[in-house]
Predict the 3D structure of the following.
Amino acid sequence: MEKIAVWGFSWVPPFAQGLVRDLRVRWALEEAGLAYESRWIDTEDRNSDAYRRRHPFGMVPVLESGDATWIESGAIVHAIAEHCEALMPADRRTETLTWMFTALNTVEPPLWNLFVMDVLHRDEAWVPLRRPGAVDEVQARLAALSGCLDGRDYLLGRFTVADILMATVLRFIRHTDLVAGFPLLVAYVKRCEARPAFQAALRNQTVGYARNAPVAA
């Protein structure tokens, strides 16, 4: 990879800060020791023709490297990990991929669903009716994940790119006390967030928000 640029939203409300998926990409780049620059798109400009040429759905993240443009956080962090033995050990590649897909396809959907209900639609009449079932689904996923982490510091025993995805997924329900019910998951998230690469990635993202914050924010 050469001359890497990561696109993220220029600013998001406080409830979303630290959750936008370009954080995953920044974290992977920091872990891999790859330099990158930040580029920002205003949310109102994400549907412009210029930006849609980068991302056809007007979302973030986008990673540009040389003449290549990549979208989708899972695909981008996978591409980064392919260049970094520490993030995707050659002898455990299939296991790493398995946990990457588990984070994105099994754990993230119910957690994201609860976030959407609680944060984006909390005042709508249907939410109290649907929420108990959504919480049950989240708790089932958390219980299974906790069992998998019993006796392990990380998903594969050592830190890999799968932990970047899983830890950022678990952050989607930081507004609840659901993770607190599973001490192994609490320790896991703290362990991941204590990594210098995570701290650097979060700092780079939040510095951009501070620089681009609207006057009334």
